[in-house]
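Now for a typical sample entry:
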Amino acid sequence: MTEPRKCSFERIYFSRGTDKSIYRERKKLGELLTHPVLKAVNYDVDNTVFSYIPNTAESAFYGLIKGVEDYINQTKMDSILRKGKHLQGMSLKRSSTGDRELKK
C-alpha cells in the first residue's frame, strides 16, 4: 500500500499566519517570484500595480515587494556608477525614476 503524501503547498497555504517559520517561507517564496514577475511586466515597475489575494498571500507579497525594491535600488546604483564623474543633478533624478535597464 502506498503511503499518502501531502503537497508542499498545503503546509504553506493552510498554516496559521502566526507561525514564524511559515511566515518566513511565504515571504521567501514571494521574493523568489520577483524576477519572473518583473519579466512578465517587462520590467516596467513604474506602470505596474502589485497586490495580493487572498490574505494568506500577504507575507509572500512582502517578499515580492522586497525583491522589487532590491531590483530598483540596483538599477539606480548601476546607473550612477555608469555615469560616474559625468553625473549631474537632473540625470540623477531621471536615473532614479525611469532608467531601468538592468534586467536579470
